[in-house]
Amino acid sequence: MADPAALERGLADRTVAFARALRAAGAAVSTVEISDALEALPVLPLERREAVRAGLAAAFLKGPTLRPTFDRLFEMYFPLRRSVASQAAGEGGDFVGELADALRGGDADRLRGLARERVERHGDLQPAANVTEDSYVFRALRGLNLDVILSQLQEETVEGEGLTALQRRLVEEDLTDRMEQFREMLKDEVFSELLEHIGPEAMAARDRRPPPDEVDFLWACDSDLERMRATLGPLARKLARRLSHNRRTAARGRLDVRRTIRRSLSAGGHLAEPSFRRPTAGKPDIVLLCDISGSMRAFAKFTLELTYALATQFQRLRSFVFVDALDEVTHLFDASGDLATALARIDAEADVVALDGQSWYGNCLRQFWQRAGRELAPRTTVIVVGDARNNFRTTGVEHLHRVRNRVRTIYWLNPEPRGHWNAGDSVIGEFAPACDAVFEVRNLRQLQAFVEAAL
């Protein structure tokens, strides 16, 4: 039997390491909170893993935002003990037949044994390599089409049994749920194998997410976008201040003739100290052109969220979205009561496909010039957001030059790494001469640098 004191000391050391990993992942875990957690350990039922999870969550978490990170790290530092694999888990025989039998019977132990056997034989785990867990799962499933196995199993199970339509549907759903459980077991086995080989600290380092301002827009997932949203309000206000140009024509402002004459009259007609009018900074017109094609989807979503935040900061802001056709969506932002509604309406109502839904900047710039060209003014700032990948179609750069001749400034924000520009179907080099500046903007840090440097 294990020494209870030694078990408690080991658990305390693991708790401190867990707290450090949470800090590295962005959680504000204080020394006082670590002390509270250590004091709580002796009164927790240590044999109940979920009770330990709940106790540490109460000590370390201040809200739901970091709960997924907490749970992920908890699995690393307090893993379940792996049971011995079932002898029924295949010894190189008919794996598909074994899997089908386990799915029919709903045998969770047998399914887990099969998942472990598949990962050990076909996962090709290389813990030292920087390979994602999903990649190892994909390797384990090579040559094994789970969708086909499930479909065949469902057909075989419901045939000739005289089941009603409802019963057939319930059987099919039950088999689908079991197959999903098997997929999750495969992921768990990959995770456990890696954890066993490299330890929790190395696993946490592999799993560590970059801070929100370093997440690449093109690869951002929904949870990353959620972390970025906290910066939208301050960034929109900073952008508004930068873009609001100052109309002063001299260091002390424009001469106020009327006030100067009045002062001279009050001084008996002698020239008095001149008076100057100090104008307030004006809000400029902003026009945003945003590529929402497939390659730009994640960045486009974030840009439109920023646009929504900017809408309250500017006197007039017009928004256009495009793929191989262009459509104005300003009214959707104005009419929608909230951001989610506006984005949903853009997805449903924006007319941005003319041919095949593949990017065509030439057609979109031509449409923009025809629709908005006459309304552009010297105070207007145009911001184009796109990767300039044009599918080897006409660029329409002549229309961008026409726009440049009518507006104050054109900036182009490209979310691709600069090293990829002008490679393949990228034509950013053709658009650059018509712009005041082209910026690589792959993350929030670069977007903030653009605001500081250019605006």
Set down the secondary structure blueprint.
Layout: H1 4-24, H2 31-40, H3 49-60, H4 67-77, H5 95-105, H6 108-122, H7 133-140, H8 146-158, H9 165-207, H10 222-228, H11 232-243, E1 254-255, H12 257-266, E2 276-277, E3 285-291, H13 297-310, E4 316-322, E5 326-328, H14 330-335, H15 339-349, H16 361-372, E6 381-385, H17 397-404, E7 409-414, H18 428-431, E8 437-440, H19 444-454
As a percent range, the share of strand residues is 5-15%
What integer value in Å does the Rg equal?
31 Å
Low-confidence stretches: 84-92, 245-251
How are strands sequenced across the largest beta sheet? 5-4-3-6-7-8
The backbone outline, from C-alpha atoms, is extended
State the distance separating the first and last CA atoms: 69 Å
Structural class: alpha/beta
Name the average pLDDT: 79
Give the strand tally. Answer: 8
User: Into which percent range does the helicity of residues fall?
Assistant: 40-55%
By DSSP (H or I, 4+ residues per run), the number of helices equals 19
Mind summarizing the main beta sheet? 6 strands, mixed
Order of helices and strands: HHHHHHHHHHHEHEEHEEHHHEHEHEH
What would your notes on this structure say?
A hairpin with a 3-residue loop joins strand 4 (316-322) and strand 5 (326-328). This protein has helices spanning 4-24, 31-40, 49-60, 67-77, 95-105, 108-122, 133-140, 146-158, 165-207, 222-228, 232-243, 257-266, 297-310, 330-335, 339-349, 361-372, 397-404, 428-431, 444-454; strands at residues 254-255, 276-277, 285-291, 316-322, 326-328, 381-385, 409-414, 437-440. Residues 84-92 and 245-251 have low confidence and may be disordered. The longest helix has 43 residues, at 165-207. The protein is 53% helix and 8% strand. It has 19 helices and 8 strands. Strands 5-4-3-6-7-8 form a 6-stranded mixed sheet. A two-stranded antiparallel ribbon has the order 1-2. Helix 1 crosses helix 4. By secondary structure, the chain is of the alpha/beta class. It starts with a helix and ends with a helix.
